[in-house]
Structure formats: structure tokens, C-alpha cells
Amino acid sequence: MAEITLTEAIFESLGMKRASMDKILVKLEQNVSFNYYPTCEKSNLEHTVGLRGHTDPSIITMLLSDEVPGLEIFQNGEWILFKPLPNTLSVNVGDILQALSNGGYKSLLHRVAASSDTERLSIVSNCYPSKDTQIGPPKELIDDDHPAIYKDFNYKELYDSMWKQRHHDSTRLDPFKVCAD
Ligand SMILES: O=C(O)CCC(=O)C(=O)O
Ligand SMILES: [Fe+2]
């Protein structure tokens, strides 16, 4: 699957050792969801989102949408509308890549706006490790100048903790930090 090739290239670019990469790559899992966003009443638009702000609990997420705009990404303190390109896959960084890269990559906070006049479809593929795979930053990425930001934890712990949090936003990895902010 394309996710393995891409994930491997990202891991290599981080300087991960083959053994650390293989621990994750041999047990990669994938889920695919099909999202349908119906039109919403104009009067509700200020308060209605198609999908509320969240980061994905994945290594990477691949997204294919129709050409109807709706996806918004949070950048420099504001929500920015993402312009879909025809026949193009977008790749988003998820929480697990943020942890594995010791904060080198930041997971993308995003949401989907509701539209009053056009329905929208998207297909989303999440790539994530098996439940028992350790996903703290590997030793080779840690030194005195780059101390570990995240503890060793596994995907099951992240997944369980995610459902206990009220806001599915950039705080999702906080319980797994070595030092609380
Ligand atoms: O529909 C989209 O553009 C994004 C969907 C999404 O963020 C998700 O399913 O996690
Ligand atoms: Fe998402």
C-alpha cells in the first residue's frame, strides 16, 4: 500500500534506524472511511460544522475529496480553507508521527465546515500501528540537545485515552508527555 512507502520515506528522513522502522512497518494497519456531508440550513451555519476540530490518531492520513471546499486547517491561530485540487491525494500528519518524530512533525488540527448549498464527499485512509506497538520516539532521535518529549506508549493507550478527552484537538498527546507543560 502507498502508505507503507510514504511512511518509510518519512521515517528515513527523520534518521530512524532500520530496526525501529521495521517494528512499526511490519504491523501497519489501515482504515478507510467514506464521509458524506449533507447541506445545512443557512440559519445554522455559524454554529454548524460538518466535522469538529480534531487531529487524526494516525501516522499519516490520506484524503481524497470531491472538488467542493469544506476542509479547514488551523494555521497561525486561524482556520484556513483548504482548496482541493482535482484528482489529488492530500497527506496529513497524525498524532503518532508527532510522537514518533519527538515533535519534529506536528499533527494537523483540522475540521470540516458545513455548506448551505452543496453536499460534499470525501474518502479518508488512516494509517496506524498495531495496538501493542511502542510509539514513543526511538532512541536514535534522542540526545542531550533533543530530549524525549514523549514517553513510550502504545496505540491502545492513545486510543483509550482519546475517548476520555472532551476535546479532540492538539491536547491529545498531552497525557504521554515526559514533562507536563
Ligand atoms: O472530509 C474531510 O475532508 C476530512 C475528514 C476527516 O478529517 C476525518 O475523517 O478524519
Ligand atoms: Fe481528520
Structure keywords:
181 residues, alpha+beta, Jelly Rolls, four-stranded antiparallel sheet, 27% strand, globular, binds 2-oxoglutaric acid, binds fe (ii) ion, vitamin c, L-ascorbic acid binding, iron, metal ion binding
The hetero compounds bound to this protein are:
2-oxoglutaric acid, fe (ii) ion
The fraction of residues assigned to DSSP E strands is 25-35%
**The CATH H-level homologous superfamily:** B-lactam Antibiotic, Isopenicillin N Synthase, Chain
Supply the CATH architecture.
Sandwich
Distance between the termini: 38 Å
Strand order of the largest sheet: 1-8-3-6
Estimate percent helicity: 10-25%
Q: If helices are DSSP runs of H or I spanning 4 or more residues, what is the number of helices?
A: 4
* Largest sheet, strands/sense/barrel: 4 strands, antiparallel
Give the topology string: H per helix, E per strand. HHEEEEEEHEEH
CATH T-level topology: Jelly Rolls
Q: What's the pLDDT, averaged over the residues?
A: 90
| Main CATH class | Mainly Beta
Instruction: Count up the domains.
Output: 1
Structural class: alpha+beta
Rg, alpha carbons: 17 Å
- Tell me the overall shape: globular
The stretches of 5 or more residues where confidence is low (pLDDT under 50) are none
Number of strands: 8
